[in-house]
Each structure stands twice: as structure tokens, then as C-alpha cells.
Amino acid sequence: MTKTRKHPQKFLILFNHKNFIFQQKEIGKQIPLIPIRK
Predict the structure, then answer these.
(1) Is the pLDDT of residue 11 over 70?
(2) Domain range summary for the chain, segments of one domain joined by +
């Protein structure tokens, strides 16, 4: 906890970025992207 306390903002951004990527992957698993063919 001492390391994160020095740069809490940096750690928070990194954590949010990883969490965002994880959420995008989970959404991709649940809802498969269907290419629209015209």
C-alpha cells in the first residue's frame, strides 16, 4: 500500500484502464459482434 500511496492517481488510471479492457472483453463474450452485410 505504501507504493500506491505515493502515486495514487497513476495507480488509479492504470487500474481503470485494465478494468475497462476487462469489461470490453466480457461484453464481447456476452454479445458477439455481428458484421452488417449490405
Answers:
(1) yes
(2) 1-30
Cα–Cα distance for residue pair 27/31, rounded to 1 Å: 6
Give the model's pLDDT for residue 23: 82
Torsion of the alpha carbons at 18, 16, 10 and 4, rounded to the nearest 10: -90
d(CA 1, CA 16) in angstroms, rounded, equals 17
Q: Which three cell numbers stand for residue 17?
A: 484502464
What does the alpha-carbon distance between residue 24 and residue 33 come to, in Å, rounded to a whole number?
A: 12
Report the amino acid identity of residue 24: Q
